[in-house]
């Protein structure tokens, strides 16, 4: 695929901290207008990959292009096209919410065209913008961080665990905002350790563990490849618990004659996905 079609292209990325290998020979691409979910457990290497992508840590090896260009750390015009939410968000406690947004807007070098829309969509209480960030709850601080990342309508959003601390309603609102930004042609790379979030929002998913990219596939293919958990109770009181792949319609056809009074179907969780990958590769 031509480089111009990629918002992010990473080739052979390795990041070491002394003797510790955080990322090992990782290849990754995010197409323009794509929502890419970077999925893995805590400590898998997601944050180190993101920091290398943004020039916040120096790669030990590899090549990184952002919006077709190298050297994001030294290109002000390129940085203005990126919205970043760190996973370890820390706001200056003595600044108000409004002052925080204004401070980062000055660094971004572009007007905060979408600030008011994002604050409203997230349900941030406007009077609280005049209060110092030290008085905010975890969820309120996260909403300010999300607004900082989106307020200048960047071409590329890089969000590290963006739903941390958000209540379910705000989380759903944020994921809908991300889907809308993608429909407008923006590119989004977001990390998570919650499979359901990625499934509800992403076009493709990359699974990473121990610093290595284990699998990249579409959400539909991911759902089809790994078994869902099926639990049920029959009218005679007996129960069953099984794993099933393939069509839900076929599953329901098989269960129709079971005389069920209760049925629960859950997607495969993240730990089971990695177990299946380990079994497939023999690792």
Structure description:
With 283 residues, this protein is α/β, with parallel strands linked by helices. The chain folds into two domains: 3-218, Rossmann fold (3-Layer(aba) Sandwich), CATH 3.40.50.300; 223-281, no CATH class. The protein is built from ten helices and twelve strands. It has helices at residues 46-53, 76-79, 97-108, 115-122, 138-150, 168-183, 195-201, 219-225, 248-255, 270-281, and strands at residues 6-17, 20-31, 35-39, 61-66, 82-85, 156-160, 187-192, 204-209, 212-218, 228-234, 239-244, 260-266. The chain has a six-stranded mixed beta sheet with strand order 5-6-7-3-8-9, sandwiched between helices. Helix 4 runs antiparallel to helix 5. It is globular, with a radius of gyration of 21 Å. The relative contact order is 0.15. The mean pLDDT is 89.
């Amino acid at each position: 695929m031509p480089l111009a079609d990629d918002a992010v292209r990473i080739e052979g990325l390795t990041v070491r901290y002394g003797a510790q290998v955080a990322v090992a020979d990782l290849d990754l691409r995010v197409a323009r207008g794509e929502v890419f979910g970077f999925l893995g457990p805590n400590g898998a290497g997601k944050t180190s990959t993101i920091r290398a992508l943004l020039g916040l840590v120096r790669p030990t090896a590899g090549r990184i292009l952002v919006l077709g260009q190298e050297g994001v750390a030294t290109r002000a015009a390129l940085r203005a096209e990126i919205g970043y939410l760190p996973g370890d968000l820390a706001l200056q406690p003595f600044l108000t919410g409004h002052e925080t947004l204004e401070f980062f807007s000055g660094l971004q070098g572009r007007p905060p065209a979408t600030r008011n829309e994002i604050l409203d969509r997230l349900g941030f209480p406007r009077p609280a913008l005049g209060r110092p960030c030290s008085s905010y709850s975890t969820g309120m601080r996260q909403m300010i961080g999300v607004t900082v990342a989106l307020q200048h309508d960047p071409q590329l959003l890089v969000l590290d665990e963006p739903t941390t601390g958000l209540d379910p309603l705000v989380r759903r609102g944020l994921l809908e905002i991300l889907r809308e930004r993608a429909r407008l042609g923006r590119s989004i790379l977001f990390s998570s350790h919650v499979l359901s979030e990625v499934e509800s929002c992403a076009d493709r998913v990359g699974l990473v563990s121990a610093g290595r990219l284990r699998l990249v596939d579409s959400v539909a293919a991911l759902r089809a490849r790994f078994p869902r958990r099926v639990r049920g109770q029959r009218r005679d009181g007996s129960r069953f618990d099984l794993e099933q792949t393939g069509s839900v319609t076929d599953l329901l056809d098989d269960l129709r004659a079971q005389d069920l009074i209760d049925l629960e179907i859950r997607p495969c969780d993240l730990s089971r996905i990695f177990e299946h990958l380990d079994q497939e590769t023999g690792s």
